[in-house]
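User: Okay, second chain of the day. Same drill as before: sequence in, structure tokens out.
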Amino acid sequence: MITTLEKLGLTEKEAKVYLAALELGADSVQNIAKKAGVNRATTYVILESLAKLGLASSYEKGKKTFFVAEAPEQLDNLLKREEQDISDRRLELKKFIPELKAIFNLSTGKPKLKYYEGYDGVKAMYQEALKIKIDEIYSFTPLDNYLEAFPEQNSVKDRVMKKWKLRVIYTNKNGPVKDATDKKKLRIARFVPRDKFPFESMIDIFPSYGIRIYNFIPNFNGVVIEDKQVAKTLKAIFDISWIGAEKYNK
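Assistant: Same drill. Structure tokens below.
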């Protein structure tokens, strides 16, 4: 019986105390401890632990406290708890897999990938970008989407403080933005009409490092690809797009 209870998740002493209480019925800690062959102090702690598991309870009678084991059917709760624990751990693993894959990809020479989810995740992704050592960013930006998602964002201030130059191709539902190009803010911009180029995600290209893709409303998430070849390819696409965008900015 003790071995079986151990397989269900109880320790050897917990199994002994539970069986002793089950056999004695309502009784004192002293008698349960004696029956179980476990010292009194330890038995008291174990009975409290069993109570948390739903396997024991207590009540006061006069000045004495009596403990009683719950029906054996309650042992099924141990399995339910274990099933829930496994389910919770599986969810944690699912969240952790992208990080493990990133380590694996890095060790095998593959692009390093990171995935961020939710509003706070995207903000954390932005904060991480501020740690990168670069001179210039190339960006495809759906401006109104970005401003709606982060109206309080101080990206311009942060970027200028780091002396990062920005070259951006942007869309905006209200058309071109006055002073989009601003030398004091180290920014050169070209507008393209959204009806012709309806990109929804913001893509920041960091030469010699990788790219960062931000998705905003309604689903906040982001992907970081740390790979120089990917960055080089996207930079070439940006250069082609930059030339093509010139006709919309005359």
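The mean pLDDT is 87.

User: Thanks, on to the next one.
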